[in-house]
Write a structure and sequence with these properties.
The chain is an alpha+beta fold. About 35% of the residues lie in helices and about 15% in strands.
Protein backbone atom coordinates (compact mmCIF):
# COMPACT_ATOMS: atom_id res chain seq x y z
CA UNK A 1 0.00 0.00 0.00
CA UNK A 2 2.79 2.42 0.87
CA UNK A 3 4.61 1.83 -2.42
CA UNK A 4 1.45 2.65 -4.38
CA UNK A 5 1.18 6.00 -2.63
CA UNK A 6 4.74 7.02 -3.47
CA UNK A 7 5.08 9.10 -6.66
CA UNK A 8 6.91 7.32 -9.46
CA UNK A 9 10.22 9.02 -10.13
CA UNK A 10 11.28 9.11 -13.77
CA UNK A 11 14.87 8.34 -14.79
CA UNK A 12 15.29 12.01 -15.72
CA UNK A 13 14.16 13.27 -12.30
CA UNK A 14 16.26 10.67 -10.54
CA UNK A 15 19.33 11.69 -12.54
CA UNK A 16 18.64 15.32 -11.65
CA UNK A 17 18.27 14.52 -7.96
CA UNK A 18 21.46 12.42 -7.84
CA UNK A 19 23.28 15.17 -9.73
CA UNK A 20 22.31 17.71 -7.08
CA UNK A 21 23.55 15.40 -4.33
CA UNK A 22 26.89 15.12 -6.10
CA UNK A 23 27.16 18.90 -6.55
CA UNK A 24 26.50 19.95 -2.95
CA UNK A 25 29.75 19.87 -0.92
CA UNK A 26 29.14 17.72 2.14
CA UNK A 27 30.91 17.81 5.47
CA UNK A 28 31.89 15.42 6.68
CA UNK A 29 32.38 14.24 3.10
CA UNK A 30 31.38 10.63 3.68
CA UNK A 31 28.77 8.04 2.80
CA UNK A 32 26.53 8.97 5.73
CA UNK A 33 26.26 12.60 4.60
CA UNK A 34 25.45 11.55 1.05
CA UNK A 35 22.87 9.06 2.29
CA UNK A 36 21.24 11.77 4.36
CA UNK A 37 20.64 13.73 1.15
CA UNK A 38 19.60 10.65 -0.83
CA UNK A 39 16.78 9.99 1.63
CA UNK A 40 15.24 13.42 1.10
CA UNK A 41 12.38 14.26 -1.22
CA UNK A 42 13.19 16.40 -4.25
CA UNK A 43 11.68 19.46 -2.56
CA UNK A 44 13.76 19.05 0.60
CA UNK A 45 16.89 18.39 -1.45
CA UNK A 46 16.28 21.55 -3.48
CA UNK A 47 16.09 23.54 -0.23
CA UNK A 48 19.58 22.31 0.65
CA UNK A 49 20.81 23.04 -2.86
CA UNK A 50 19.36 26.57 -2.82
CA UNK A 51 20.86 27.22 0.63
CA UNK A 52 24.28 26.37 -0.83
CA UNK A 53 23.93 27.85 -4.34
CA UNK A 54 22.71 31.27 -3.17
CA UNK A 55 26.13 31.83 -1.61
CA UNK A 56 27.46 32.26 -5.15
CA UNK A 57 26.71 35.03 -7.66
CA UNK A 58 25.85 34.25 -11.27
CA UNK A 59 28.22 36.01 -13.71
CA UNK A 60 26.28 38.65 -15.64
CA UNK A 61 26.77 42.41 -16.21
CA UNK A 62 25.28 44.56 -13.47
CA UNK A 63 24.84 48.23 -12.73
CA UNK A 64 26.97 49.23 -9.75
CA UNK A 65 25.42 51.42 -7.05
CA UNK A 66 27.50 52.62 -4.11
CA UNK A 67 25.61 53.68 -1.00
CA UNK A 68 26.95 56.65 0.99
CA UNK A 69 27.37 54.29 3.96
CA UNK A 70 30.21 52.75 1.93
CA UNK A 71 31.70 55.72 0.11
CA UNK A 72 32.17 57.92 3.23
CA UNK A 73 34.11 55.18 5.03
CA UNK A 74 37.83 56.11 5.27
CA UNK A 75 38.68 52.57 4.21
CA UNK A 76 36.93 53.20 0.90
CA UNK A 77 39.64 55.72 0.04
CA UNK A 78 42.53 53.52 1.18
CA UNK A 79 41.17 50.55 -0.79
CA UNK A 80 39.96 52.58 -3.77
CA UNK A 81 42.35 51.09 -6.34
CA UNK A 82 41.35 47.51 -5.62
CA UNK A 83 37.67 48.37 -5.09
CA UNK A 84 37.48 50.19 -8.44
CA UNK A 85 39.10 47.23 -10.21
CA UNK A 86 36.69 44.83 -8.49
CA UNK A 87 33.61 46.89 -9.39
CA UNK A 88 34.74 47.04 -13.01
CA UNK A 89 34.66 43.25 -13.01
CA UNK A 90 31.12 43.44 -11.62
CA UNK A 91 30.02 45.79 -14.40
CA UNK A 92 31.56 43.55 -17.08
CA UNK A 93 29.82 40.48 -15.70
CA UNK A 94 32.97 38.55 -14.81
CA UNK A 95 33.00 35.57 -12.46
CA UNK A 96 33.10 36.90 -8.89
CA UNK A 97 33.69 33.52 -7.24
CA UNK A 98 37.38 34.27 -6.43
CA UNK A 99 36.25 37.22 -4.29
CA UNK A 100 33.66 35.29 -2.29
CA UNK A 101 34.28 33.20 0.81
CA UNK A 102 35.95 29.86 -0.02
CA UNK A 103 33.81 28.06 2.58
CA UNK A 104 30.95 27.05 0.22
CA UNK A 105 33.42 25.00 -1.83
CA UNK A 106 33.70 22.47 0.98
CA UNK A 107 30.92 23.33 3.43
CA UNK A 108 27.60 23.16 1.61
CA UNK A 109 25.62 20.73 3.75
CA UNK A 110 26.07 18.86 7.01
CA UNK A 111 23.51 16.47 8.55
CA UNK A 112 24.48 17.79 11.99
CA UNK A 113 22.73 21.11 11.30
CA UNK A 114 19.39 19.29 10.99
CA UNK A 115 19.58 17.23 14.18
CA UNK A 116 17.75 18.09 17.39
CA UNK A 117 19.19 19.17 20.70
CA UNK A 118 20.28 22.27 22.60
CA UNK A 119 23.81 22.33 21.16
CA UNK A 120 22.90 22.02 17.48
CA UNK A 121 24.53 24.66 15.28
CA UNK A 122 21.83 25.49 12.71
CA UNK A 123 24.22 27.85 10.95
CA UNK A 124 27.04 25.35 10.37
CA UNK A 125 26.11 25.04 6.69
CA UNK A 126 24.55 28.47 6.21
CA UNK A 127 25.57 32.09 5.76
CA UNK A 128 23.60 33.76 8.54
CA UNK A 129 23.98 37.34 7.32
CA UNK A 130 23.12 36.38 3.75
CA UNK A 131 20.01 34.47 4.83
CA UNK A 132 18.88 37.23 7.20
CA UNK A 133 19.76 40.33 5.14
CA UNK A 134 20.31 39.18 1.58
CA UNK A 135 23.85 40.65 1.56
CA UNK A 136 26.85 38.88 0.04
CA UNK A 137 30.34 39.76 1.25
CA UNK A 138 33.37 40.04 -1.03
CA UNK A 139 37.13 40.26 -0.55
CA UNK A 140 38.17 43.22 -2.76
CA UNK A 141 41.78 42.19 -3.34
CA UNK A 142 43.08 42.01 -6.90
CA UNK A 143 45.79 39.56 -5.87
CA UNK A 144 44.40 36.09 -6.63
CA UNK A 145 46.32 33.22 -5.06
CA UNK A 146 47.14 29.93 -6.86
CA UNK A 147 44.17 28.22 -5.19
CA UNK A 148 41.88 30.63 -7.02
CA UNK A 149 40.85 32.89 -4.13
CA UNK A 150 41.52 36.58 -3.62
CA UNK A 151 44.30 37.17 -1.14
CA UNK A 152 42.72 37.68 2.30
CA UNK A 153 42.76 41.25 3.61
CA UNK A 154 41.28 42.80 6.74
CA UNK A 155 38.34 44.38 4.94
CA UNK A 156 35.26 42.98 3.20
CA UNK A 157 32.59 44.63 1.05
CA UNK A 158 28.95 43.86 1.72
CA UNK A 159 26.59 44.20 -1.24
CA UNK A 160 22.99 43.46 -2.18
CA UNK A 161 23.08 41.62 -5.50
CA UNK A 162 20.17 41.21 -7.91
CA UNK A 163 20.15 40.09 -11.53
CA UNK A 164 20.63 43.68 -12.71
CA UNK A 165 22.21 45.64 -9.87
CA UNK A 166 25.11 45.39 -7.45
CA UNK A 167 24.54 47.74 -4.50
CA UNK A 168 27.54 48.19 -2.19
CA UNK A 169 26.27 48.97 1.32
CA UNK A 170 29.49 49.15 3.34
CA UNK A 171 33.09 48.30 4.12
CA UNK A 172 33.75 46.25 7.27
CA UNK A 173 36.50 44.37 9.03
CA UNK A 174 36.06 40.71 9.96
CA UNK A 175 34.65 41.48 13.40
CA UNK A 176 31.37 41.95 11.54
CA UNK A 177 31.07 38.13 11.52
CA UNK A 178 31.51 37.71 15.28
CA UNK A 179 28.32 36.66 17.01
CA UNK A 180 28.49 35.09 20.44
CA UNK A 181 25.32 34.21 22.40
CA UNK A 182 24.49 36.60 25.22
CA UNK A 183 27.23 39.03 24.23
CA UNK A 184 26.95 42.53 22.84
CA UNK A 185 27.29 43.03 19.10
CA UNK A 186 30.66 44.18 17.85
CA UNK A 187 30.59 47.78 16.57
CA UNK A 188 31.00 46.53 12.98
CA UNK A 189 28.15 44.03 13.27
CA UNK A 190 25.91 46.62 14.92
CA UNK A 191 26.66 49.07 12.09
CA UNK A 192 25.74 46.45 9.48
CA UNK A 193 22.40 45.85 11.19
CA UNK A 194 21.77 49.60 11.31
CA UNK A 195 22.46 49.85 7.58
CA UNK A 196 20.15 46.91 6.91
CA UNK A 197 17.34 48.39 9.02
CA UNK A 198 17.67 51.77 7.31
CA UNK A 199 17.59 50.28 3.81
CA UNK A 200 14.68 47.99 4.73
CA UNK A 201 12.51 50.87 5.95
CA UNK A 202 13.80 53.60 3.62
CA UNK A 203 10.69 54.00 1.46
CA UNK A 204 8.09 52.97 4.03
CA UNK A 205 5.44 55.49 5.15
CA UNK A 206 5.88 56.83 8.67
CA UNK A 207 4.27 54.57 11.24
CA UNK A 208 3.98 51.57 8.92
CA UNK A 209 4.95 48.03 9.88
CA UNK A 210 7.93 46.56 8.01
CA UNK A 211 8.82 42.86 8.19
CA UNK A 212 12.35 41.65 7.57
CA UNK A 213 12.83 38.61 5.29
CA UNK A 214 11.65 35.65 7.40
CA UNK A 215 13.95 32.81 8.44
CA UNK A 216 12.68 29.29 9.15
CA UNK A 217 13.51 27.58 12.45
CA UNK A 218 15.98 25.47 10.50
CA UNK A 219 17.91 28.64 9.60
CA UNK A 220 16.90 28.49 5.94
CA UNK A 221 15.54 31.53 4.18
CA UNK A 222 11.76 31.18 3.82
CA UNK A 223 11.99 32.79 0.37
CA UNK A 224 14.34 30.08 -0.89
CA UNK A 225 12.35 27.37 0.86
CA UNK A 226 9.30 28.41 -1.17
CA UNK A 227 11.40 28.71 -4.32
CA UNK A 228 12.69 25.15 -3.86
CA UNK A 229 9.25 23.69 -3.20
CA UNK A 230 7.79 25.51 -6.22
CA UNK A 231 10.61 24.14 -8.39
CA UNK A 232 9.91 20.61 -7.13
CA UNK A 233 6.19 20.90 -7.91
CA UNK A 234 6.95 22.34 -11.34
CA UNK A 235 9.29 19.47 -12.20
CA UNK A 236 6.76 16.90 -10.99
CA UNK A 237 3.98 18.42 -13.09
CA UNK A 238 5.97 19.03 -16.26
CA UNK A 239 8.33 16.05 -16.44
CA UNK A 240 5.81 13.74 -18.10
CA UNK A 241 5.41 16.22 -20.99
CA UNK A 242 9.10 16.72 -21.72
CA UNK A 243 9.30 13.87 -24.24
CA UNK A 244 6.37 15.21 -26.27
CA UNK A 245 7.90 16.95 -29.34
CA UNK A 246 4.72 18.93 -29.84
CA UNK A 247 4.92 20.39 -26.36
CA UNK A 248 8.58 21.36 -26.73
CA UNK A 249 7.78 22.94 -30.12
CA UNK A 250 5.04 25.01 -28.48
CA UNK A 251 7.56 26.29 -25.92
CA UNK A 252 10.17 27.22 -28.52
CA UNK A 253 7.87 28.59 -31.25
CA UNK A 254 9.31 31.71 -32.85
CA UNK A 255 12.80 31.26 -31.38
CA UNK A 256 14.35 29.53 -34.39
CA UNK A 257 15.20 26.49 -32.26
CA UNK A 258 15.56 23.30 -34.28
CA UNK A 259 14.55 20.23 -32.28
CA UNK A 260 17.10 17.40 -32.71
CA UNK A 261 15.86 14.12 -34.18
CA UNK A 262 16.40 12.33 -30.88
CA UNK A 263 16.53 15.01 -28.20
CA UNK A 264 17.75 14.12 -24.74
CA UNK A 265 16.40 16.64 -22.27
CA UNK A 266 17.58 16.79 -18.68
CA UNK A 267 16.58 18.97 -15.77
CA UNK A 268 19.26 21.50 -15.00
CA UNK A 269 20.03 24.27 -12.52
CA UNK A 270 22.36 27.07 -13.60
CA UNK A 271 23.01 28.70 -10.24
CA UNK A 272 19.32 29.06 -9.30
CA UNK A 273 17.85 29.28 -12.80
CA UNK A 274 15.78 26.13 -13.42
CA UNK A 275 15.26 24.70 -16.87
CA UNK A 276 15.66 21.89 -19.35
CA UNK A 277 19.01 21.34 -21.05
CA UNK A 278 19.50 19.50 -24.34
CA UNK A 279 23.10 18.47 -24.93
CA UNK A 280 23.06 17.97 -28.72
CA UNK A 281 21.75 21.46 -29.46
CA UNK A 282 23.23 23.07 -26.32
CA UNK A 283 19.78 24.54 -25.64
CA UNK A 284 18.67 25.63 -22.18
CA UNK A 285 14.96 26.33 -21.76
CA UNK A 286 14.61 28.44 -18.60
CA UNK A 287 11.37 28.11 -16.63
CA UNK A 288 12.34 29.73 -13.34
CA UNK A 289 14.85 32.48 -12.60
CA UNK A 290 16.85 32.81 -9.40
CA UNK A 291 17.35 36.12 -7.57
CA UNK A 292 20.79 36.85 -8.99
Amino acid sequence: MTDRMQPVESKRVRAFRLGLIKLIPKFPNNKASAQSLEEKSLGSLLIDYANWAIRYVAPRPRKVIVEMTASIDPRWVSLKKDIDAFLQKVERGEDLTPYLSPKPRTRGYTPAASTSGPDVDRWADKDMLLNAMGYHHFHPSMTVEPAGFAQPIKEVLFAHVTRDEFTVVGVFDHSVFKSEPWQSLTPERERLWQIFDERLTRHSPHGSVVAAPPIARSGHSVYFTYLAMNYARFISNLDKRVDDPGYISSLTAGTGFQLPTKPKWKWHLQYLDLGLFEKTSNAFLVFGKGPN
